[in-house]
Specification:
By secondary structure, the chain is of the alpha+beta class. The chain has helices at about 5-10, 15-30, 40-50, 85-105, 110-120, 125-130, 195-200, 200-215, 385-390, and strands spanning about 105-110, 140, 145-155, 160-165, 230-245, 265-270, 280-285, 305-310, 315-320, 325-330, 340-350, 380. It comes from Sordaria macrospora.
Amino acid sequence: MLTSTAIKQLPRASTRSLRSIQASRTRLQLHRLYHETPQSRASVETARSINPTDPIANLPPTWTPSPAPTTIRPQLDVTKQVFKPSYYQAVAEIMKLRSKYITNRSIFVEGSDMVSLLLGLGATPSDLDRLQHVSNNLYSDPTLPFRRSRNGRFCFDFSSQSVRRLEFQPFALSVEEDFKRHDSGQIRIFDEVQDELQLNTAFQALLVFKGMICHGVSTTQRPRLDYSSDKWVCTLFNLRTVTTPHILGEPALEGVHTDGVDHTMTTYLGAENMDVEANSAVTYMHDMNEETGAKYTEIKPQHLKSRVQHRHFLDTLLLVDTENKHSLSPVLPVDETKEATRDMLIFFTRRPVLKKGDGVGHISEAIDSFRPHGELPMEVPLFLPGKIHGKGE
């Protein structure tokens, strides 16, 4: 912290410089960062106390922006679709996919099919268009130089039959959760997803879709998670993997892994200059006997279950994360002299962490809040097939 004496010794900015700083500040007001809100700063301090050696100790100075105007758009409400035949067609198709998911423990849905399903649930065509460009507003990743990212936390609350935005929290994955990388066990801080994504009806329909597929599906249970709870944590990542002439972008630098959750869903938003014919960003799924941390080039054929490649807008993979390890190949460019990018939405969904006295030791125990987000609220209703048919969970 600068003392008053040190401040006096700083060179004074010229009037022109001050105007330039103010102009930059105004431009940044449209992009609120994690360290710019009192609640997020409190979370950062909590993270510092948990892991004092973490890179968040070197966060940039904070400033308080003026409230940026928010364009209010109607949110998704599946209950208002009940008089539309397309809604029932979408529900019927999703129930078929759900049955396949229960049997096979993973599904891959072509983007063209996802478009019909999301529109049937109430997403608007204009929001589908907007979703393809949302990754243009991502920031640097805290630990990976070839990635740009934002994240946000949501709660699937099956008691209220809704999904809502949760307050900002740091994020962590550990070796115990089959995630072996240089930053395993670190408390990581990501910039938050904003209203341009969370108020997009196509994005909200993706949340409803995942809730419909996963609700009531039993899985192999992870230690230290509360499987008696009717609330699930969904950590959403909006990621852009970047390959340049100087650095290779790897969607899964960690090699073979799981995501420390119960259900993982990955949805493709688009790419630039990515060579899909050269097997860029292919997802390989393995049985649980495959070695955690092995590169995709080192995987054993006897452990390989399947492979998929996200190639078209909204191509979506959903898998039971406790029963499938997975790995990915890197993003390869068509033109090696130019940047290649791949944009994704990643939905990690798990039960809450057991608290002290019940499951001491989970890495996320101290950062697993269920408080709603005070500055970026969002809540939309869910369609729960088990509840509708009277089967419960």
